[in-house]
Amino acid sequence: MNNSMISAMVSMSGIQQRLDMISDNMANLDTVGYKRKEASFEDTLTRVKEQSSEFKLPGRATPSGFNLGFGAQATTATLNFSQGSIVDTGNLTDLAIEGNGLFAVQAEGGVQAYTRAGDFQLQPNPEDPETAYLVTNRGHYLLNVEGDRIEVPSGSKLQIDRDGNITAKVGNTDTAIGTIHLVSVQRPDALIQKDDNLFVLAPGSNVDDILTDIWGLPEEQQVAHIRQGALEKSNVDLTKEMADMVQVQRAYQLAARALTSSDTMMNLANNLRG
Description:
Flagellar basal body rod protein FlgG, about 270 residues, bacterial flagellum, 21 strands, Flagellar_FlgE/F/G, alpha+beta, three-stranded antiparallel β-sheet, LlgE_F_G-like_D1, five-stranded antiparallel β-sheet, 3 helices
């Protein structure tokens, strides 16, 4: 297998990963709080090949060497945490984050995870019909600053201020429920995106190096707040994704044509030799 075939195959593999990422972004265009994924590429085993001494003629102004590589491959996938647009819904359990923040939730198996999806719902407590839990649309429990599930009286009217303080109103009685746990992200690269629009910490990472409890900071340093009755839309720009997809498809076609041409040349060479 010659260099041109290897280069085309490596490039096609990397381009396919980029195409999969674009498809994933487009599929989540309407997912609440979804954050766009982006890829970085780098050359594979690129080096400068020196020509033989016969090419070093007197008066030659250009270098006699040339670049020799094996295509480009995807190296990292990063999350774009830019703010998505916020839409008012009027639903009291819909919460949008304005700024750099994530809700803390308890996922399946008791694992602590984080999300921007604020389309919460009330789920009845099976052990106490007088109360209900605030959960995501996938059933993951929203946590308070103490790390406990947020439990509210059934049938109550919830009031949540910009600092995440929850008040349940039943008739003329107001009851303080607690404060929603909101964290800011210091190192987005240390978060791993999971199913159900969740993020978890990378294995072996220290939570204090990656996330900061927003409500533990002075007010002037709090980088995010909560808006009740609104949802944050995905930050995917469909126009940009479509333009990127066309560009990536063209690159894939070019690499496929290079692979076909290389195969054709090898067949011609083999026939001549036979």
